Fold this protein.
Amino acid sequence: MTRVGFRCDAGIMSGVGHLVRCAALAEELRSRGVGVVFLGAVRGSEWARAQLRERDLPLVAAPRTPARLAALARELRLDAVVLDSYDLPEETGAALRDAGLAVLAIVDGDPLGQEADLYLDQNLGAESRPFPPPIAGERLAGARYVLLRDSVRRRSRAPRRDGALPRVLCFFGGTDSAGVVPAWADALRATGVPFEGTAISPAPFAAGGPITVIPPTDRLPELMAEADLVVTAAGSAIWELLHLGVPTALSWVAGNQLIGYRELVGRGVAAGLGRAPDAAAVAALARLLADPSAREEHGRKGRGLVDGKGRERVADALLALL
């Protein structure tokens, strides 16, 4: 049996986006009879642990040094390793390749010095941006290669409700690592426009007004599909929202999200709120809440950019290396 390892971590500070997109590719590989194991750590997020447990994806603690990781990969009889982390030593990919394993590096723009046989940058417009060296292998770039989970691929957007209050979903990743959800909930209430809101936060807080606060949940794809507007960061969840065609208003909480933010807002497929929930952001949210046609125009432009088959294309390219 072909065996593939995924080297990624998840946690309160690092977020869960790397794990979520790796889980999507793992689902595809498992459907093809490939053995899968995750190499890394999950710190402080029960929701992230559940994503692996519910998919029966084993998690093995990963050593820090490239040489020891390569030795573990050989011990586990892996044929390939997927690297998805900003924090790995840059020699990691080279050590794995020297040990005879194929390497896929999932990156967001800069490969951070990682050597790989195959690079994946699923960000919108990545195919037209220059790729910094070193690059040793093939590059899969752009929205054609977005990795989506089964729970998103099998869902469609809920019918719109004429005349009803807009349903707003506010979340910033699986862990809200920057702790910004309460401030954005305040910004939504400050619009003064009636709406029904749900905010997802691992740390409970009193939002007040029309907003219900819930912890991280596996119902997220359902909540996204039912929303009339989603307020979030330009992270990995945006690709799920584009696939569903849900109107989205974006901020960013990490520097690596800024390229995606500018691309998405520049194309008009999402509304831009800026970095902070200030007066300008409140005004932008008020316009979106009060004008259904303005919201839906963003959803219309985004719909179709992510066809849901990206993980199949990535799996094809990875398995072709073996």
